[in-house]
Design goal:
Elements: H1 8-13, H2 15-23, H3 29-38, H4 40-61, E1 64-68, E2 72-78, E3 82-90, H5 100-109, E4 115-123, H6 128-137, E5 141-142, H7 146-155
Antiparallel strand pairs: 1-2, 1-5, 2-3, 3-4
Helix pairs in contact: 3-4, 4-6
Organism: Myroides albus
Pfam families: DUF6495 (PF20105)
Protein name: Histidyl-tRNA synthetase
Length: 157
């Protein structure tokens, strides 16, 4: 398995897609139930293969991620070959970007000396999707890129 198995909730949400996946392998509900009972290791492999297929699709289409911590916001923008990063840091230790108040403070203080903003980038290695997945594993979430684009425009990148 290249990534991680989908959660039970994710499988439930993707039930129609999983059913189609099994059908593409000539596995109907009766055969699936039999497989789970008689060959659970094969059923587990099917779950893993489906999970990797879903992850590949999600990661291939990922263009933006955001990661929030108490005093930092990491914004990531991707294309096929490059990863671009904007890091926003509150220099005041009592600011918490995990709260609505902290985000409001950032909006008000973005042009002050209490906020540090850095940007950078690098080329992806040989496996773009794995690198994006690793960032997600560290706590980043998929994003529509609005905040990334606002800061990119603000920094004139």
């Amino acid at each position: 398995m290249k990534y991680t198995r989908l959660t039970k909730e994710q499988f439930e949400e993707m039930h129609p897609e999983f059913t189609n996946f099994l059908a593409s392998q000539q596995i109907d509900k009766h055969e699936w139930d039999k497989l789970k009972e008689e060959k659970p290791e094969v059923a587990e492999q099917e779950l893993d293969v489906f999970s990797d297929l879903v992850w590949e699709g999600v990661l291939s289409n990922a263009r933006f991620l955001e990661h929030y911590s108490k005093n930092h916001i990491f914004l990531f923008g991707f294309d096929e070959k490059h990863i671009h990063t904007i890091v926003i840091k509150a220099l005041l230790t009592d600011i918490d970007f995990m709260t609505q108040e902290g985000l409001q403070w950032l909006s008000d203080a973005v042009f002050t000396n209490d906020v540090e903003i850095k940007h950078g980038g690098k080329d992806f290695g040989s496996d773009r999707n794995k690198e994006v997945f690793d960032i997600i594993q560290q706590g980043a979430i998929l994003s529509d890129g609005v905040l990334y684009q606002q800061f990119k425009d603000l920094l004139k990148l």
